[in-house]
Amino acid sequence: MAATRDGFFGHPRGLATLFFTEMWERFTYYGMRAVLVLFLVAAISSGGFGIDDKTATAIYGLYTAGVYLAALPGGWIADRLIGAQRAVMAGGLAITVGNTLLAVSASPRAFYLGLFVIVLGVGLLKPNVSAIVADLYPEGGARLDSGFTIFYIGINIGGFLGPLVTGAAQAYFGLRAGFAAAAIFMAVGVLQFYLTRRHLGGAGAYTAPTPAREKYWRYSGVAAGLSALVLAAVIFGWVPLNAIAMARGASYVIVAMAVLFFLYYFLAAGLDAEERRRGVVLVVLFAGCVLFFTGYEQAGSSLNLFAQRYTDRAVGMLHVVIPTGWFQSLNSAFIFVFAPFFAWAWIALARRHLNPSAPAKFALGVMLMGSGFLVMAAAASLVASGSKVLPYWLISTYLLHTFGELCLSPVGLSYYTKLTPKRFVGQMMGMWFLAMSLGNLLAGLVAGTFEATNVAAMPGQYMKIVYYSVGLGAVLLVLSRPVKKLMGDVE
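Request: output the structure for the sequence above.
Response:
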């Protein structure tokens, strides 16, 4: 069965199905992310868990890192076992169930089970909904690029609306109401996918079983059984649960995985000299990605707490207090406004042969992210003197972080595919997700160093982030010219 053609802005009708599925998934992800840490640190008397900042941000880091790691087995399950369409459906249902558990759980361990279920759901849905988009355009080319552009608009609509709704729900209807709102709207996304998936035709459809698939099912059953045992041990308290130690341990494991993979890649993968030179660039981009997301992902943790505790969110004339979670919508709003400008700027610079290389754009992205924390250091100095600050400090920080993202993120995946030999593209995509996962883990650990009882130390802590990010970004910028030479003829 072929996909229904030309029914959505001149594109296959199935694109609308995927557009709204991804929009509601991103709505749920960013909406829940905006209220997670706020719930964890809230006092027990007000309905929260009363967890200290260090533990709460470590949980946040484990959760966001897990989402990126889960995309690796999620793609494998779709490719080898159930097909992308079924994976998206199962993922959406899991996200709905997970957020429902967050909303109704009576204990922290049941709450953590909800987070785990969401991680599994996002891992199944996120990579495969994008894969189905590509399947809708077997001809490829500019039409596919245009389809993905429309698809990414849905991502940012969801990222913008999610924190607005969940933030308001948490502020006005109770701490758990944000999770309930996320569950409701993800259920809407699953329902519309189920009702309109016929428009996808054979894109991402389940294929007939093979002998190899039976073997993969056995492997998957063993893995699922072991995972269930570990999960049960955590839920029923058979093993102690220390989020900080888990986050640190996971960071070491991911670093070791990256080192071992790149050692294999350079020493045992049978690369020629040109491929090895390009491999050096891949390592540099990996490090730049980790550094960027370590700072960028402070948004849902330390910057979220700064918005709640130290920002004057009252709108005087209206006698309204801005919900803390609303600040998490700024990034998507700024992408809407400024992404066209950045796209135009790169094209205009290329016409004049001034377009920065990929390593240079990475360096600029990291430095812009770091400059955002320079703004926060100034804001923290005012807080340390005993006064709250106005929202424009956070708004300026998120604006600079978005500028950094627009320099770095669009370049990353593109160049990871261009610089990698075709036989290793899939593995290198996994390494890109591994870098983002590591960055998210480190972000949670860094956020935990900010202590609510030691406001005087906050300006210096923000300045440390500035020194590391801007300093290392400057080093990347200096190295960008020789690194560019290693790229050969890749543009």
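The first strand starts at residue 314 and ends at 315.
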